[in-house]
Amino acid sequence: PQGSEEAKAFVNAFLKRSMPKKTDEAIQDILTWKAVVLEHYSKKKTKQKRKKTKGFTAKQRREMRLFEIEPEQQRYAIFLPLHELWKQYIRDLCHGLKPDMQPHMVQGKLLKADLHGAIVTVTKSKCPSYVGITGIILQEFKHVFKIITKEDKLKVVPKLNNVFSLEIDGFISYIYGSKFQLRASERSAKKFKLKGTIDL
């Protein structure tokens, strides 16, 4: 067992080590209060900044040809399974396309749906050469559709001044391209207004 002097010396040394910012006088003053609250100095942890992963720029995507479809892949038969998947996707989206469903409800769903894999037909156009083009939508951009026809030809059809029709399970929907100039990701959040007549 330690003597009182040894205990006092140990406590003083311990407190001095535990509270390095305090003077000897301050420590002696603290000892008169009987209860001592020890200070704890933790090392500040430096937060590591998360590096944001940067995507490719539009120029880099063009240089890498990310969106180009190789000529040997431009075959209508290859994308028929994609069309079947799209039909199932629309049926699930509309909770089953029943004959008693109201057309404007189906139209509203189709306007916001992903159209990759849909078979569309250009029904009206200010450019007569586009009228009658039918095929599967392979890519949708802000201003154009890339469509593969049954003749295995890849057509780039502008949305502007064109009216497209698509049919699924007896429901025929018309898309006015001039009002549809949005990216697929932006379209899902857009509110479309019902209008009586729409010009090309």
Biggest beta sheet attributes: 6 strands, antiparallel
Q: What's the name of the CATH homologous superfamily of the domain at 71-189?
A: Ribonuclease P/MRP, subunit p29
CATH class of the domain at 71-189: Mainly Beta
Q: What structural class do the secondary elements suggest?
A: alpha+beta
The total beta strand count reads 6
Number of helices: 6
CATH architecture of the domain at 71-189: Roll
Tertiary shape: elongated
What gap, in angstroms, lies between the N and C termini?
101 Å
Instruction: Name the strands of the widest sheet in spatial order.
Output: 4-3-2-1-5-6
Give the C-alpha Rg.
36 Å
Please write the string of helix (H) and strand (E) elements.
Answer: HHHHHEEEEEEH
Beta-strand fraction estimate: 15-25%
Mean pLDDT: 81
What does the oligomeric state look like here?
Answer: single chain
Pfam families: RNase_P-MRP_p29
Protein name: Ribonuclease P protein subunit p29
GO cellular component, one term: ribonuclease MRP complex
GO molecular function: ribonuclease P RNA binding
Task: Provide a concise account of the structure shown.
Helix content is 29%, strand content 19%.
Fold and architecture overview:
By secondary structure, the chain is α+β, with helices and mostly antiparallel strands. β2 and β3 form a beta hairpin. It has helices at 4-18, 24-31, 58-64, 80-93, 103-112, 184-187, and strands at residues 119-125, 134-140, 144-149, 154-158, 162-168, 171-176. The N and C termini lie far apart (101 Å). The mean pLDDT is 81. The radius of gyration is 36 Å and the shape is elongated.
